[in-house]
Structures are given as structure tokens and as C-alpha cells.
Amino acid sequence: MNQSQQFLAGTLELIVLQLLQAEPTNGYDLTLRIQAISNDVLSVNAGSLYPALYRLEQRGLLRARWSLSGTGRRTKVYSVTAAGRRQLAEQRAGWEQFAGALGAILKVT
Amino acid sequence: MIDRAWLGLRSALLRRRLEREMQEEMQQHLERSTERLMARGLSPRAARRAAEREFGNVAWLQDQARDARGTAWLDAVIGDVRFALRHFRRRPVTFALRGLRGGVGTRQARGGSGPGDHAVGRVNGVLPGSLQSPAGAGANPVDAAAGVSARGRSCAGVVMNEKRSSFV
Question: Are B69 and A54 in contact (CB under 8 A)?
Fold first, then answer.
């Protein structure tokens, strides 16, 4: 196995909300964008992504609509709702606070 | 609160449509993965196989998705009712006697498995802890194996790659 895998609990929701707020898209393209934007450092498998999308939709944080893609395919596009934007702002603030605190600790010599 | 209740009701009412849409969405994901891998030089057959491996177990994934939509318990209840009706049609007298003796409950108390157990496990997944049945705890071994919590809230699933993958 040429990868060591580390599960980063709690970050998938944040990643999905952030990327969909920037640009609504479908599940498949979202997996590609996560890989591309993180320079292949992060990847999300379908087994985690789709349940997360449905859960966020169920909680009213995402909205889904079917539309035709450029290639004429019917595709399900997800976008962030107003409640989703509020949730994202809260989660981002929490994550930034945590990252800042951890960064300060890791500088201790 | 009202929005959440409405979304839950909508999921229950549109269950069949949402189910079709989920299958269509996952099918498309597989098709696009296959096309991407074919563009990298794999044969159509090898690309499809690789895409399926990459995607994972479709049946398990769809089960997880139903849990996430909050309709898995309804599917389980409908499955149980159909199971009961089939038995009733075949052996109405036996069915009635077992019903009087609390047949399903007896089977669960013995630690056996059946559709009733499945429903308890599913319903437990959507109930607050204090309302859950101990008989249903851990009733779904697949969930436990995947490290997904009973309430399906775990967001694990982001993988950090130490080295860049040349294939995915």
C-alpha cells in the first residue's frame, strides 16, 4: 500500500460546505475538486461523500436540484442554503480557533 | 425545527423517487469514473472494474445513504410488514398463534436475527439514546465495521495521502 491513510474526523462536512458555497456542483465533480484543490493530499471516497451530502441535505444545509450538464447528462447539483452558510461560518470559526491554538502549541520548543 | 420536520416528511413521502434519484446519481458517478480511467488508457472492462473498486460496495453505500436520509427505518418497517403478510398468506393459523405469543419478541430475546431485529436497529438509529432499545444496539454489524456511529453523524472519510496517488 503506497498510502498511509489518516481519517480526519469532522472535516468532511466543513470541506463540502466550503466548496459548494464557492461553486455548486455534483458529487462526482466535488470529489475531483477536493483532490485538485488539496494537490492530491486529501481525497474523499464515494462511500463517505454521498451519505454526507444526503445528511446535509436532510438537515436543510444543502439544496439539490437536477439539471443538464454540458454533455447533456442529467446531473444532481448541490448548493448551500442560508442555514448551511450559517453553519459553515460557525464551523470555520471553530476550526480556525483550533488550528491557531494547535499551531501555537507546536511552536513551543 | 419545522424545516427539519418538513424535510423528514418529504423524505418519507418521496421515498421511491429519492431512491431512484440516488441510484441514478451513483450510476453516473461510476460512469464518469469509468470514462476518466478509460481516458488514461484502460480498456472499458478494466476501467469499469477499477471504477467499481474505487467506488466501493454499492449496496452498502446505498444503505448508508438511506440512513443519512432518515428513511432506512421506514424501508425496514415496510419490509417487515411485507414479510409478515407473506407469512400470513402462507400459514394464517401459525402466524396468528405466533403473534399471540409475541413471536418476534421471543426471537429477539433469544438473540436470533430477523427482519424485526433489523427494524429495531434502524429505528434506534434515529431515536434519542434514552428511547433506544438495547436489543437493537449494535444490530447492524456493517455500521460498526465501518466505524460509523449509530446516529450516522461521523464525518470520518476524508483521507490524507502521504504520497500522491498515481492512479486515483
Answer: yes
Chain B residues inside the 8 Å CB shell of A4: 161-162
Residues of B with Cβ-Cβ distance to A75 under 8 angstroms: 28
Query: Which of B15, B31, B155 should we substitute to test contact with A (largest number of A Cβ atoms within 10 Å)?
Result: B155
Degrees to nearest 5, angle at CA B101 with B96 and B103: 80
Q: Which residues of chain B make contact with A12, given a CB cutoff of 8 A?
A: 155-158
pTM over 0.80: no
Backbone angles phi, psi at B160, to 5 degrees: -100, 120
ipTM of the complex: 0.82
**Left (φ > 0), alpha (ψ -120 to 50) or beta: where does B147 sit?**
left
Q: Does B159 contact A44 at a Cβ distance shorter than 8 Å?
A: yes
pLDDT digits (tens, 9 = 90+) for A30-50: 999 999 999 988 888 888 899
